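README, section 4: Worked example with a bound small molecule

Sections 1 through 3 covered apo chains. Here we extend the same pipeline to holo records, where the ligand is supplied as SMILES alongside the sequence. The molecule in this example is thiamine diphosphate. Nothing else about the input changes; the structure line simply encodes the ligand pose together with the chain.
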Amino acid sequence: MNRADQRKAYGEELLSLARENENIVALDADLSASTMSCFLEAEYPERFFEMGIAEQNMVSTAAGLALCGKIPFVNSFAVFLTGRAYDQIRQGIALPGLNVKLVGSSSGLSDFGDGGTHQSIEDISIMRSLPNMTIIAPLDAVETRMAVREMVKYNGPVYLRLSRSELPVLTTEEYPFEIGKVRKITDGEDVTIFANGIMVSKALEAHSELKKRGISARIINVSTIKPLDVEMVRKYSADVRAVVTAEEHSIIGGLGSAVCEALSTEAVKIKRIGINDCFGQSADNYEELLEYYGLTVSEIVRSVEEII
Amino acid sequence: MKELIKELERKSVQIRKNILESIGINKKGHVGGSMSSADIVTALYFYKMKHNPAAPDCPDRDRLIFSKGHSVLAQYAALAEAGYFPREELKKTKTLGSILQGHPEIRTPGIEANTGSLGQGLSIGLGMALAARLDGLKYRVYVILGDGELAEGQIWEAVTAASNFKADNLIAIVDHNKVQATGPIDRHELGNIKARFEATGWETIEIDGHNMEEIVSALDAADEVNGRPTVIIAHTIKGKGVSFAENKAAYHNNGLTEEEYRQAVEELEKLHIEVEGR
Ligand SMILES: Cc1ncc(C[n+]2csc(CCOP(=O)(O)OP(=O)(O)O)c2C)c(N)n1
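The generated complex, written as structure tokens:
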């Protein structure tokens, strides 16, 4: 499978949008070489703000820029952006509904070496609890580009969650991306698997494995976690025997929780796959960690077989 | 004194070798900031601090916190050398299940606080310094800060608080290597660091952070300060001891190729011989 870097796709797309829209500016806290805001920095140094390692100040500065008509893209690792600067996001951006784009890089377990301090298992949960916040976790580099374009068209706060790892490319530019809409990846009759990020590719692999075992799985990409496409989530859950969710995030407060909330009035069995309420840790590589925390093809297959 | 300095210099070469061992070949590792702190860490563990590897929880031990937690490889290097855990653990740094994580965690023997999200260590150190006073204990708390890290607002909240509480048992050490993750720290000017601490009532000492004599006398001088906290601003070189990594942001958190690793080991061997000849 062809793989590509979401961060690079983001950085390139941001630059190309900045060429067309002079209101786009970027802020970073000494991580631009990793978040890839460095592309914009190189071409438009005056529209790039190196804020130093000071995330709280960076987020509130972005609020000020937005209040004066700019479209600030705020960059850092997901864990520091949503955690360190939480109150600045809550009070200064979400509450007034400002047009600030928060880009959380190196999310989930993708910063495998740095360990629990750097691995964001709760960023979606934190952001999801904020009224007015839109949350997008694209599944690959191509969807990332489309999401960045839509984020600029959309007026309001958005949290974009990106991986540090190269992810399998599953979509093309023809793939219809719309904020707030789920997308069907495969159709099936027995079970619906709602997934996002890297877990969509895992679900696809599980799909072939399940097929061999006579189970037909529908896979739905839920890249917008908020606002959730409740209508389609309900529709895709109504005609199957069970629902499984899969995400590279804590099972508390993320995609699984959102789907459970949407289906709380329906009679459907749901099994959530995610990180089971524990912090991450260091490892030699990404796959090893995904394996350790049960974010695997075999875990999806096992869960589906167990629940249907 | 001369013998002591030579002994410490010898140790610091070993600490740097240990850092390399933790980083390994073709893996990512914070080479730059660990190497720049190596001499300071050596002087703390093998000269200044009262500590006992056999009783790591002893209440009146001196404490060292790496607020710039990514450079913890230097602390692991010293802890292994002092006998807090077997040397073999170094090779397992940052592997699944290792006691040596990418950033400091208190479950590792000798590690005093969880850090890694920059800007928090000085506040934690202040808490420990205040606890010493409540408990009538004489221990000191040393906190190593990065110069890029000084951009975090929380550091300056801690600076003001420590001064308010007259925490003279709290000693901050700025590893002033002038480089952060993405380039030189003047990407985001910090102004006059010394003046900023002084304005808040701190005692300030400025030294060459690779000159063992200066490190030792600065640490001794900090003992004599009464009624206010001390900061030692140590001018250092990011990546010090590994020539190709020196002063380079590219080696902030980078892997070493087999060739680079071999060269680094060779350079440290040479340094070792040079120190012996002093
Ligand atoms: C709150 C927070 N923001 C960002 C980072 C990512 N980060 C790790 S090290 C580093 C640069 C540190 O520079 P400096 O303090 O000068 O340390 P040194 O040069 O000594 O390694 C950055 C931005 C982090 N660990 N924590």
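What to look for in the output: The mean pLDDT of chain A is 98. Chain A is about 40% helix and 20% strand.

Section 5 describes how to batch many such records.
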